[in-house]
Write a structure and sequence with these properties.
The protein is an alpha+beta fold and 440 residues long. Among the domains are: 102-190, Roll (Pdz3 Domain); 194-363, Alpha-Beta Complex (2-enoyl-CoA Hydratase, Chain A, domain 1), CATH 3.90.226.10. It is 38% helix and 23% strand. It contains eleven helices and 19 strands. It has helices spanning 2-58, 65-78, 89-99, 127-131, 152-159, 215-225, 245-253, 299-309, 388-407, 416-420, 423-439, and strands at residues 85-87, 102-105, 108-113, 116-122, 138-142, 145-146, 166-172, 180-185, 187-190, 194-199, 203-208, 232-236, 260-266, 273-276, 288-292, 314-317, 325-331, 337-346, 362-363. A six-stranded mixed β-sheet has the order 10-11-12-15-16-19, sandwiched between helices. Strands 1, 13, 14, 17 and 18 form a five-stranded antiparallel β-sheet that branches. Strands 6-5-7-8 form a four-stranded antiparallel β-sheet. The longest helix has 57 residues, at 2-58. The protein is globular and about 100 Å long.
Length: 440
């Protein structure tokens, strides 16, 4: 027994010794790895400093160290992805002006697609919209300057300017054989992001042009105003370039009472977040048709994609833009900052938006409806000795209805003629009417 006890203790001692040696080796390896990382970091910084010094000394044009550092930062950030960039003192100041909701410019959101400066969406009612710019237009020139190799921020800096000053764009549009010149006069860009109108007596049309900080409140107000009569909603997110994440989540939450709305995942665990719906904020359960197209990006893709995943709405139109990344602005100094992509969006089903977009349930291309009258059609009213008294009564009712409509402001009503000019909207209304009937 004594021998056994000694043997056991001896085995434990040997195990402990092996464990200590193994742990010691691991610790040494970790230190060595950390030292290697730090050495690599120092070598990379030394290389960067050396290149800066060489350029400062030998470049054909004399540049200050501040100018070189700014160029280096611009190059580094712009090479990360299409949406990250360095905000110089001038750029950061412009960004802060823009967030106030009013600035001098054209009223378009641009992005880089396949290396070309592309219009994501013109903002409704702005000089760009009135001049005829459309989503997917490629901007070849700004005034006489080519946009090849131009960053988004450089392009925006040129296009923004003093209210009342002119600018000329040369664009390429799908389906056109040659470039199109467009002359625009800069205006004050003050954005109203929510518009609501009535279609008939029981359908509400809500257009959201961008996701600013008032979207949820404004949409809630319009729905509550029409709550007693609304049996269906057309939510128009066409050419909506996006905006604030919390407003996209809040808008979806008005229609969905449970489940996830969107999640974001980044490199840092602190950037991983999931946003879910709450029953207390849901204000309506009526059928919804959402209109989307190639100009619907970012926040509008979150709303449409989440409603689609929850089977809460039917999506109609064209495939969306496909921007599924999260950017934040991080201050570097009091007057400078960087805009950095920190995460990707994921819809409730787990699918990504990035470079894929959201596909509509029903694909409908833009256009107008050609309504042709059949001159050879014969109706009851064309027959001799038809019941004229009944016809007179119908005519009187129609006159009363017409007078009633005339009393309303046209801006609050979408007429049948307007619907015929917008194929996508007309299809949405027809589908919504069917959904209302099915719901009973």
């Amino acid at each position: 027994m004594k021998n056994k006890k000694y043997l056991t203790l001896g085995f434990a001692s040997i195990s402990l010794a092996i464990s200590l040696v193994f742990t010691s080796n691991l610790f040494a390896e970790e230190i060595k790895t950390d030292e290697n990382k730090e050495l690599t970091r120092l070598q990379a910084l030394a290389k960067f400093t050396k290149v800066i010094g060489i350029v400062e000394k030998y470049n054909v044009d004399e540049l200050s160290i501040e100018e070189l550092m700014d160029k280096a930062l611009e190059g580094m950030l712009s090479n990360l992805d299409a949406h990250s960039n360095y905000l110089s003192q001038k750029d950061y100041k412009k960004l802060k002006v823009q967030t106030k909701g009013e600035f001098g410019g054209l009223g378009i959101t641009v992005g880089v697609r396949d290396g070309a400066l592309t219009v994501i969406a013109p903002i409704e009612g702005t000089p760009a919209d009135k001049a005829g710019l459309e989503a997917k237009d490629i901007i070849l020139k700004i005034n006489d300057e080519s946009t090849i190799g131009m960053t988004i921020d450089d392009a925006v800096a040129i296009m923004r300017g003093k209210v009342g000053t002119p600018i000329d764009l040369t664009i390429v549009r799908e389906g056109e054989n040659k470039p199109i010149p467009i002359h625009i006069v800069r205006g004050v860009i003050s954005i109203q992001s929510v518009y609501a109108k009535n279609i008939g007596d029981d359908i509400t049309y809500i257009r959201v042009t961008s996701f600013d900080q008032k979207v949820v409140a404004d949409v809630s107000k319009e729905i509550n105003k029409r709550k007693k009569t609304t049996k269906g909603i057309v939510l128009d997110l066409r050419n909506n370039p996006g905006g604030l994440l919390d407003q996209a989540v809040g808008l979806t939450d008005l229609f969905v009472d449970k489940g996830d709305i969107v999640s974001q995942k980044g490199r840092d665990a602190s950037d991983n977040k999931t946003f879910s719906a709450s029953p207390s904020t849901t204000i309506t359960s009526v059928p919804i048709v959402v209109l989307i197209n190639g100009g619907s990006a970012s926040a509008s893709e979150i709303v449409s994609g989440a409603l689609q995943d929850h089977k809460r709405a039917i999506l109609l139109g064209e495939n969306t833009f496909g921007k599924g990344s999260v950017q934040i602005v991080l201050q570097v100094t009091q007057e400078e900052a960087i805009k950095l992509t920190i995460a990707r969006y994921y819809l409730p089903s787990g699918r990504t938006i990035q470079a894929v977009g959201v596909k509509p349930d029903i694909e409908v291309f833009p256009g107008s409806v050609n309504v042709k009258k059949n001159e050879f059609a014969i109706k009851e009213a064309d027959l001799k000795k038809h019941l004229e008294e009944e016809l007179k009564k119908v005519d009187d009712d129609n006159d009363k209805a017409d007078n009633k409509d005339d009393d309303k402001a046209n801006k609050d009503i979408i007429t049948p003629e307007m619907l015929n000019k917008d194929m996508q909207l007309k299809e949405a209304v027809d589908i919504l009417k069917a959904l209302v009937i099915i719901k009973g």
